[in-house]
Amino acid sequence: MDTSKADEKLRKEFNEWAAAGRGEEMERHHISIAEQTIARMAPARGERVLDLGCGAGWATRILARAVAGKGEKGQEGQAVGIDIADDMIARARAASRELENIMFVWGSAQEIPWRDEYFDKVLSIESFYYYAEQEPVLRELLRVLVPGGRLFILINLYKENHYSLRWVEELAVPVHARSENEYTEMLRQAGFEDVQALRIPDLTPTPDEYSGQWFKNAEELRDFKRIGALLLLGRRPPSTTEA
Q: What are the residue ranges spanned by the domains of the chain?
């Protein structure tokens, strides 16, 4: 697959999302599962963290505030957001000017513009299923993580949540719809250890009446939230030097 063409298609699609303000909407749609994931991630003062597929940067800002200041080893905390859509990056920068320890860069998930063994933790919310070649992305994440660094991938689109499969044919760009077992094996093959898959329910209230396009009624939406998002966890082995 020509990943440069796939990246360009993603860039165009999500630049359109940016123009429509949909990047900012994602905070409202995903805040419950994101907050639960970030609590498990436990970003600490002085850590360097990466938000892959950061969109308008709302989760990156949460991370930046959590890691601000010096850690026990004197390292300054930093949050970096990377996205393929340059217009998303522009919106993220504009909304984050008050934070000194945050940076947003344009880049492909397969060629993260950062040196080896830099980030303590990586977070990716609702973007991983868009990447045309997921295995190289995982190897790239392994590269930029410090030995012992931890990975957190959160996705709503996966086989066990059958409601989410309705999106596959409706989205304007190709997506992967894999199973929990397929993803955990993929992480292990990429070199991650301590691989786990958890379900993160959406705890936001469901209205009594539903009028959107994805669910037949409020009960279906409630069931979708109960099934929850898939959280994939992994750790770079302490002795790994090259993926």
A: 3-235
173-208 tens-digit pLDDT? 999 999 999 999 999 999 999 999 999 999 999 999
- Cα dihedral 70, 84, 14, 234 sign: negative
Among residues 66, 33, 60, the alpha carbon closest in space to that of 47 is found at 66
Q: What is the CATH number of domain 3-235?
A: 3.40.50.150
162: pLDDT confidence band, cut at 50, 70 and 90? Answer: very high
pTM, two decimal places: 0.94
Quick one: tokens of 89? 């990056």
Q: Which residue's structure tokens are 């970096």?
A: 80
